[in-house]
């Protein structure tokens, strides 16, 4: 049941979407807009894109941590060579 004061999109007639529409719908949900009668394939695509976004974020975090570790290691090596 959708409350009268709540914003929502009725998507029962939506049959064709592209990636831009998927991201638009994800943003709508993030802003509290309910997606009513959303087709299964659109909902699945939205979930896949959200997972992909989270995966990219965690991969980027791991790469940044690895880069910092390599940088600290290289600084330690330089200091060691300068001390010798």
Order of helices and strands: EHEH
Spans where pLDDT lies below 50 across 5 or more residues: none
| DSSP summary: helix tally | 2
What is the number of beta strands? 2
Distance between the termini: 74 Å
Detailed description of the structure:
With 84 residues, the chain is mainly alpha-helical. It has one domain. It contains 2 helices and 2 strands, in the order βαβα. The chain has a two-stranded parallel sheet with strand order 1-2. α1 packs across α2. The N and C termini lie far apart (74 Å). The mean pLDDT is 81.
What's the quick description here?
It is built from 2 helices and 2 strands, in the order βαβα. The chain has helices at 19-30, 40-83; strands spanning 8-10, 34-36.
